[in-house]
Amino acid sequence: MTLERFEKGSTPSYFFQSATQKYLFASKHIKGAKILDIACGTGYGTNIMFERHPEFQFFGCDIDEQAITYAKRRYQKQIQFKNCDAYSITFPDSFFDTVVSFETLEHLKNGQSFIKEIKRILKSDGYLICSTPNRHFGERLGSTKEKPFNPHHVSLYYYDEFHDLLASSFQHVKIFGQTETGADFFYKFPAFYRFYRRIKPIILPLLTHSSSKSEIVIPEKPNPKFEPKPFWKSAYYLLAIASDMPINSKTQRTD
Questions:
Q1: Per-residue model confidence (pLDDT) at position 134
Q2: DSSP letter, residue 89
Q3: Which pTM does this prediction carry?
Q4: Checking DSSP bridges between strand 237-243 and strand 172-179, what pairing results, if any?
């Protein structure tokens, strides 16, 4: 598994905490009885949602067979994990009430095909909850479309592009921005981030080793904030809820 795969006890806590906040956010907005986490990785996020909604039926899918094997071994048997491709999700039409997919679009060359596939497996009143890094923020750190600062990324989106991609398949789209302490610091001091990228191969193994010695506690009240501000240029991530039905979500800061 690559460094893009997060897991409690083996990923630096500042990365892990940022990722878990999205699943805490999703846990407040998922609807229906059948929930899919597509590109679930090692399954930590699927499990976060399951622990908060054990009455629902959860599924986790990922193309990485090693990650799925780990998820099946590590988490509750009530969660159904399976190996599948994001462009060809092995479930029937109109099967899920909610589909969750965080940090997936930036890894795909054809985001529209992926969104259409999600639309196919969602019920007519279903929700898609997804996120992707903010391209505007990345450009402040020296990233370009041809050469993102993260070598695992192939597609980056501005607010408008992210909105239009989702709106091409769903009638209602609400986008939030996620910021965090570290991201704000890098936004103000992009030169520091470029320095960090140079020393990351040296310090990351040390941080990973340190974080593995203690249990990471996931706070119920997120530190990162999610705000519905269009074109929020300082947001490190853009997070959206999309549906063909009006979206019942608060328009103020989510605490």
A1: 84
A2: -
A3: 0.75
A4: antiparallel
